[in-house]
Write a structure and sequence with these properties.
alpha/beta, 10 helices, 294 residues, Rossmann fold, 17% strand, 8-stranded mixed β-sheet, two-stranded antiparallel sheet, disordered C terminus
């Protein structure tokens, strides 16, 4: 019979090796009253992030509908998991709004200070010298800093930049708002890598406009691009970058049936209109003006 200590060692090894397993084990810390309902697209995102961790991918864009766990995976669990193997890693987390950036920062900090994390990964210890809601460091010189569009990043270099919704979806039709966000990315964020050759950048967002950050960087080339629509308009084959697993989605299939099935998606169409729904849920922004579904 496996003892409790042996079981803990096995679970620790699994969590350190697999981001998906780390998320499953750490989920109750952040969501103690909400059951984790897993789906294959979460495994896919985790494998892409593991490729970034290993340096196989240095520029990654992930597009996914709202409330499909993209921020929890990319902005919260993944960087905390990376510290289990690379506690020296320095992260910068920009977003369109300070409250959103701080929320993710508090969640990361809550994971790091949890009994579960400290028991399983005792080598990662937060430093008392730099420990606020927006920024904290560890005793291995690793650091995590949250900021928002227009915020100062002068003097802070990052090994990994995680950009979570740089443009407010509610203001994405404003050319001025888009220009502000894209200019801040080009002139400030893109210069913050400690190592310009090996620095990593991950962008996670729902599509909001043809000229949003995804459209801006993908047009430049050199980015791995993972697009996950809520429902599929055509046959799509996903090949997992590490395991080689394949998932085939046929036209009309739904991405996460346990979260939003056909009736919920139809309600979203009626609520948002075709323009916003096509961008935010299908990841295919339209060039036409907003119209309502009839």
């Amino acid at each position: 019979m496996i003892s409790r200590d042996q079981l803990q060692l096995i679970e620790r090894a699994l969590a350190k090796r697999s981001l998906a397993e780390f998320v499953r084990q750490g989920w109750p810390i952040l969501e103690p009253r909400r059951k984790l309902v897993w789906n294959w697209h979460l495994d896919l995102i985790c494998e892409y992030l593991e490729q970034v961790t290993e340096g196989a991918i240095s520029r990654l864009v992930i597009n996914c509908p709202p409330r499909f766990m993209k921020s929890m995976l990319v902005s919260v669990f993944w960087p905390v998991w990376m510290w289990t193997a690379h506690p020296e890693m320095r992260f910068l987390f920009p977003s369109y709004a300070k409250p959103l950036a701080l929320k993710h920062s508090r969640d990361r900090r809550k994971l790091l200070l949890s009994d579960w994390y400290r028991s399983n990964f005792p080598d990662v210890n937060l430093s008392d010298d730099d420990n606020t809601q927006a920024a904290f460091s560890n005793t291995a010189q690793g650091a995590m800093r949250a900021t928002s569009v227009g915020g100062s990043v002068t003097g802070f270099g990052a090994d990994t930049i995680v950009i979570d919704d740089l443009i407010n979806p509610a203001q994405a039709d404003s050319e001025a708002e888009r220009t502000t966000g894209l200019r801040w990315y080009d002139e400030s964020l893109s210069t913050r890598h400690n190592d310009k050759k090996n620095g990593r950048t991950v962008i996670v967002e729902q599509r909001t406009h043809l000229e949003d950050l995804t459209g801006h960087v993908v047009a430049q080339g050199g980015w791995a691009h993972l697009s996950l629509p809520a429902e599929f308009q055509r046959r799509t084959v996903y090949v997992f970058p590490r395991s080689g697993r394949q998932v085939i989605c046929e036209e009309g299939d739904v991405l996460w049936r346990d979260r939003e099935d056909k009736p919920q998606l139809e309600a979203a169409k009626q609520r948002l209109g075709s323009y916003a729904y096509s961008a935010q849920y299908l990841q295919e922004p339209l060039s036409a003006p907003r119209i309502r579904w009839i």
